[in-house]
Structures are given as C-alpha cells and as structure tokens.
Amino acid sequence: PLGSPPRPRALSEREPILDPSLHQHLDRKINFVAGVIHPWRVSAFERLLWRACRGYLVASFVEMPEPMEDPATGESITWVIFLISYWGEQIGQKIRKISDCFHCHVYPYPESEASRADTMSGLHSQIQDLSVVLEETEQYLAQVLDKVVLVLPTWRVQVQKMKAIYLVLNQCSFDVTEKCLIAEVWCPVRDLTQVQDALRQGSYKSGSSVECFVQRIPTSESPPTLIRTNKFTAGFQSIVDAYGVASYQEVNPAPYAIITFPFIFAIMFGDVGHGLLMFLFALWMVLYENSPSLRQASNEIWLTFFEGRYLILLMGAFSIYTGFIYNECFSKATVIFPSAWSVATMANHSSWRWDSQPSCEPLSRSRPALTPPRSAHSSAYLATHPSLTLDPNVTGVFQGPYPFGIDPIWSLATNHLNFLNSFKMKMSVVLGVVHMGFGVLLGVFNHVHFQQRHRLVLELLPEMVFLLALFGYLVFLIFYKWVKFSVADSMVAPSILIHFIDMFLFTSNADNLPLYRGQVPVQTVLVVLALASVPVLLLGTPLYLCCRRRAPRTGRPAVRLGSRGGGGQPGGTRWGLTAGAVPVQPVAVGEQEPLLEGQEAGNSVNATKEDVESGGHDPDSEHLDFAEIFMHQAIHTIEYCLGCVSNTASYLRLWALSLAHARES
C-alpha cells in the first residue's frame, strides 16, 4: 500500500553504495589513490586532506603488520597504509599534490577487481622469487666465508709481511741514478751474517741483475739499545722499560728485577692461600699458553694478564714463601711445628690458673698476652689482671725460636698487631736500604765498562757515603738493638726513632739511653760525612772534566771496546750489557764511491771507528758543553739526595700494605 513504510533491503558487499539509477544521472566515476606515509604525519595529512577537498573523499588508514626499512635513511619504521576514494579530477590532483608534500609513497591502484587480483598475484610471485634468490645468495656467501676462514690466517700473515716490506721500503732512499735503493740501518753484530745471507738470497730469488751487499760505515751517533727477550723475560723487561730504557751497553736491571719485583710484591701480599690461587692461575696460563683462544682474545685486560703470566707465576710462588714466614693462610695461622711458648709452664709458676684453652686479647712488647676464662681458682687474680702475659724470663716458658716463620701463638695474642707492626716496619726499612744500595752498586759496571773510572770516586763513592752514613746507619741500629737487648733488659731498650731524629739535630736525649758508648760523636761524624758528600757529588765530575780539557794532551787515546764473548758480539744479549750494534748500509754494486762522496761534512760517515765501538761515550769529546754537564749533574745530585729520603719512606708501604692485606682478608 502507498501509506506503508518502505521495508529495509538486505545489503551485500558487492552491492554499490549509490543507487544505480542515480549514478547514471550523475555520470561520475570513483577514483582511488593508494600509498604509505610515515606514522608521525598521519594526523596532519588527514586534516589537510579534509580541509582542502571539503570532505569530497573517503580516506582509510591501516598500520603495516611488520616494520619496514626506510630506503632513504635506513631506519626501521612501521608505515601506515592509506586508501583514498574521491570524485572528480580536480580533487585527485589536490590529493596527489598533498601526498607529494608529505613525502608519501604513492602506488598505482587498478580500477577493476580483476586487475587488482592480477596485480596481487604478480606481487606474490615476485616476493617468492626474491626470497629464493636471497636464500641462495646467503647459502653461497656462507660457503665462501667457510672457505675464507680456512685461508684467513695465511692471508693475515701475507698482509702483515707485505705491510712490513712496504714499511721498510718507504724508509729507504734512492741513489743518484734512481735505480737502486739505499738503506742506513743499525744491525747487531751477531746478526750481521744473517743479514748478508738474507740479502744474497733475496737477490738470487728475485732474479735481480744487481747484487745487494752490506757496507759498514762509521758514525758518531750512539747506537740504539737492543734487548733480546723471550716469553719469560718479556714481562719483566716491559716493566723496566716503562721507567726508562738503558743507554747503549749499559747494565740492564731487568734480570735482577726478575727476583726483586716478585719478592717485594710478596712482602705486601704474603699469604699461603692467596699466593697459591695466584700461582695456580698463572700456571694454567703457562701450560695452555699455545692455545689460540687464549692468545687471540680481544679483551685488553685479559691480554695484559696473559702477557704477564710468568710474572704472576713468580709473584704467586714468592707470596707462598712469605705466607709461610708470616704464618698466614687466608689470614689464619697454621700450626706446622709445635709452639715454642709453653702456657702450662707459665701457669705453674704464677698465680693464674684456668681449666680450658686461652682466648686472645691485645698484648704489649714482644711477648704474647692471653686472657683466660674466669674460674673459681682465678677469679680473684683476674679481677686485677685482665691481660695475662707470658714471661719469657720464666724458665721453660720460651723454649727457643720457632723453626720457620712466626710462632702461631701470636695469632691468639691480643698484641698480635703491635708485634707485626714493629717486625714489618723494620723489615721494610732494611730491605729498602739494601735494594737502593744494590742499585747504586750496579753503576760500577757502567763506569768501568765506559772507561770512566773518575766517576767511581766522584759519583759512586759520594752516593754510597750519603746512603750508608744516614740510612745504612739506621739499618745498623736496628740489627744492633736486636742483638744487644735480650728479654731480660728489653723494657729499658731505647727508641731507635728518637736516636735517628737526634742524629740530625746534633743533640742527645737524656730520657733515651744510648745504644753504645760514644754514640753521639759517631752520629755527628756520619752526618758531617753525608753532608760533605753532596758538594763532591755536585761539583766533582764537572770540575774534573774542565781540568782535563785544559790540561795539555800529547794525543788522543783510542778507546776500543772490542768484542767480548766471542763471535764478534760485544756484551752478549743485554743480560749483562747491551748487545753490540753497528751501522750498516746495503747498497748496489757500483754505487759505493758516489755514495761516500755525496755525504756532507759533519755527517755520520766522518766519525771514527772508536766512536762506533764505544757507543758514543767518549770522555775526550772536543765539544763538551760544561753548562749542560753542570746542569745535568745538579739535577742528578738533587734527585739522588731527595730520592734517598723519599724512597726510604716509600718502602714503608711494604709494611702498610702488608698489614692492610692481613687485616682485610
């Protein structure tokens, strides 16, 4: 009927939105624009489209399920896909211009459904083809890399050799004809034959028509220092080189540091347990030192430990030794031998008794102080004696020195720290003075070797007098007090520190008894000798060289330090003295005369053979700069005198760090 309301029709996905009859009257075509846009620009893009087109469009935005890489920046972005439907060509132009302004990636959108299906199937086939190509490419690259891994060590060696060859060639120079290379190098005497053989073999294998040869040329320059090391000595040599490299043919202190460095470390780190852990760790690195995984590690800290494995091995071994001396294993005392102190004997000869083992409390002087638990027999005595001291004056209480190290009863004593303070402080001073004196005595070999015997009297002797008159005397007082005063008169023993202070003040202290008769005059003489040695050390060598230059000379003495030890090698391999080195010059045949004639005056070829063999240490040089010599000697004197004081105090760190390690462990 006409008055009834229209019934709703069932809608389908394929049914057009507009009425077909209306569409025919409008005669308009619906177009589409599809593309992707950055997610940050979606809101602004949508607002501008709506305002510019006045709503004559339908836009749909959907995020991609997976992020994709931006081809311009390489950034991984979750793009937003948009599909815009519109009517009219003018609106389409506006949409395309706005899309270009927002840097959108616009893609063609087929009009018919069949075209869209064909496009989708084509894209899927392209994706499958690209996936197959990528997979095959990855497999091929994996095979290539597997083959490269096998030859990579060989390539690395070849590249390193080529770099080394080009580095050497870049340091060479052309001759006047620019047909041959000339290289001036320093070569150890013992390796000179090998260099000649290598040049001869290189010329033969390369098929060169010009043979290489080596010519020895004189020079006045001091040769560089060559120190031959192996895997054991390399770590110790690097420590010495960190402070300074010895001059040519001087004594190398590294062999002595192999013993002194680990031992000084062990004084600070003396513990059997900790030293054993360090020793086992270093032993593991030594046993597996040829393992590629250990040698080729990229961790810089690990490589530092690995290169110093032998140093750590000796430090661990020496720490075990000093740990037995300190009688400490993980900071706990061990009872290897029976204690030399008898508590039962002390109990039988005194008024205190107990029924169980003693506990520890601090003690005074050098005798253990023990605190027993209270009992019925000792309550009255303990009320007035909270700390009970073992008296070595009582017969049988102290039965003699402990066989090795410190008696374990000291770990139970309450004055354990006071006892170790005195022991380790004096030990540090004694070892420090001995170590410094040994370093000064090494200069004897340098002075004798370079024929500079005047330095023995004008430098070495004042240095030893200054060191021994002050700090050597301190070591003497330590040992003298240990020997002279026994248990019976230990309570009246004077203070060494007060005596040492009074020594510099030229006074005496009535409250501090002298150690021996005539101590004050002896100390006064020693201080005067120490002070008198300073001007000798400061002015002796410069004045001697000045007087020697002004004295008339009949001729110049030729100092020849020929080969010592056979084979034409001066000094061996720096275990004692630096290996000898001579300048050599590989040149081509026929180029010898022009080379020598082309040298300028004052160059290395005008020096004498004696200058080469003495390593540039010529005491009779005509070009002595006395201002420079005096300045150098003044710096050396100030550095030595202040160093003796500061180094002696610095050795007390052995005492401080040793106590800190024992207490914190």
Automatic annotation (TrEMBL):
Known function: Essential component of the vacuolar proton pump (V-ATPase), a multimeric enzyme that catalyzes the translocation of protons across the membranes. Required for assembly and activity of the V-ATPase.
Instruction: Give the transmembrane region(s).
Output: 263-288, 308-326, 429-448, 460-480, 526-547
Q: Does the keyword Protease apply?
A: no
InterPro entries, sorted: V-ATPase_116kDa_su, V-type_ATPase_116kDa_su_euka
- Protein name, entry field: V-type proton ATPase subunit a
Q: Name the species this protein comes from.
A: Eudyptula minor novaehollandiae
Which molecular function terms from Gene Ontology are attached? ATPase binding; proton-transporting ATPase activity, rotational mechanism
Tree of life domain: Eukaryota
Q: Mind listing the UniProt keywords for this protein, alphabetically? A: Hydrogen ion transport, Ion transport, Membrane, Transmembrane, Transmembrane helix, Transport
